[in-house]
């Protein structure tokens, strides 16, 4: 039997119970922080030598030079060629759909000219070089390689550099194939905080990048947090979450399996179902009991659902949407007959999956939108990974001689008000009364 | 006499000299970090009471309740009414221009439907509530209030909440007037790390926000860094910088004053001039010597230029643009006859000021683009503050029954490859062969 919390919004203390369910201790571990401090310092000071040393100690891979740790473009291409036909086709179809969706996110430079000839605008440029971290071992997801590399290449990033640890020298061929398909330009068999340090600071062999993206363990996350400012970073992801708002019209088995598909990620993953119909919640609970034994990752699912899962009875669908906005979930399935009606009420969610056919799993792999999404309520203020994370803007200001007369007076007045006389003088120099050439 | 470094790209060791000039020690101060830890904990645990206590200790303002510390909408409106006509007109003209520019940055929701009926898209929503930190005392810039509040309101943020310390009860009327003009919804006379804590965690009187923006001292910066994740934050700004690329055709006095306008901000500000013409660099140096005594902030300017300023002779304008890309300056003036020709070579800068009439001061106050810009080389990967910082995206995925057949197969294949059987089953449930209702 599967144990999962049942809540009802009519209960006293529901809000507190919901908060307790959502709570997640993100406290940083001092021993990890200290280890990362040492590793960052080591790579910064000793470069390639430190990188080789840490790789030998942590991944049990001995190399005479960092150059030996390169996974060559030929090796990436060979991995792609080695896939069986079905897997290759699936990966290619996914890459193609992800690319097409992300192409719509590309921003373009714009300018406009005012009546007096002053031109204003916003110039869009891609980042020069981006580092993509890909975990080794069991958390190595080829789909993540696509989701991170493709937006960068669509943005026009000059060079995408992948790092991935290869413990005991073991390379994951599907990950390398995905790198080839995603357009990764160079790849290195390094990982951990030492790989983050190499990307941020550069070494003799590895050129520094401008931004580092991609998931990683606690050491990688701590290292990314530390190098932020030297380089850009993407979000530091918390545990993955799904919230399903159901009106009770989707087969209970489907919703049960959607909850499982989140819970199977890891013990900290969170899967919550909201529905106005208590009977439907019962059906889903029964379906979960029936389906669990067939799941290879049943133990992870059981722990995740027992500790962090929830079946919540709401008064109505409107209330479900209010709660969804409060939770601001990473993934929100609206499994209902009129999904758009409820979607219109949603302000905060990483991705909305509308209607019974839109299971999260389809979005995780191949619908097109990115699967790197804001977790832990950060959808209140942040967005899925996208092309916009690999482009940046520069303001364009070309003031005409006439424009300088108007703007100069305004600027000088405000500058005097702020006590900044050099600002005022710089503006006034451009006025006709003082203009000298 | 003003002392400022002269460099030449032809010199041995130029690169190292340039690095040394750009270097800036951003080490965090442990005593500040510890104080901020205590303040955050205090406000989190004791709410309003802690806020009142810190405000009494740090700002010497005693209030019986946090409600007493509100700066009411009527008080903001009164401050606006109290401005003299010229200043009010200047502030209104600036607000109007900033608003018009930022309206072009607003993103809109888009969707598209594929042949099989699957709908994909990107939904745009504003943040619900934003906190705007405005420093008290000498660093209180009304222009900054406009530059932070207007993009938030253009984005559609429901509530913009300003906090600003009022040491000894002293309120800055121009700051309050700018808040009224910028559309600030509520304002509180609180500051420091305690104000950041109140905005991030909320108290009985102050509702929590979703993002905190605006400049502040080291305590405010440390507090923002700590609450990041609970709320969004804007960049933590380093010292302000200008890089001027000149071809020698702009009056030397103008360029000298533009360098001063950056240097007068504070002793750590950085002002650097690149020019192929040694004679012109001499002229600018002479102009600075002549103009410095007339500057009220001459001491700050002298220190800033002596420690962090530079006049650099380059081989040609192309080389100047290469160096500009390496520096990735916050402000880049291209003071030249063909500014667009050189602007096309620039990949990394917060804002580009093109042509002799486009002094940075015009952009600081009223050209239209934002004056909150990426510092310390972060223009390599980040952008000016904009409407996009107050909007966020949610992916939209509505898979049709037909679409689920195609996508389900791809997703299931990839999910099996990643060992995620519940993902595969969730996708396969939507295939016709297994579909049950």
From TrEMBL, chains A, B:
GO molecular function: histidinol dehydrogenase activity; NAD binding; zinc ion binding
The keyword Metal-binding belongs to this UniProt entry's keyword annotation: yes
Listed GO biological process terms: L-histidine biosynthetic process
Keywords noted in UniProt: Amino-acid biosynthesis, Histidine biosynthesis, Metal-binding, NAD, Oxidoreductase, Zinc
InterPro entries, per the entry: Ald_DH/histidinol_DH (IPR016161), Histidinol_DH_CS (IPR001692), Histidinol_DH_monofunct (IPR022695), Hstdl_DH (IPR012131)
Needed cofactors: Zn(2+)
Catalyzed reactions per annotation: L-histidinol + 2 NAD(+) + H2O = L-histidine + 2 NADH + 3 H(+)
Any matching Pfam family: Histidinol_dh
Chain sites annotated for binding Zn(2+): 262, 265, 364, 423
Enzyme class: oxidoreductase
Name of the protein in its database record: Histidinol dehydrogenase
Lineage: Bacteria, Pseudomonadati, Pseudomonadota, Betaproteobacteria, Burkholderiales
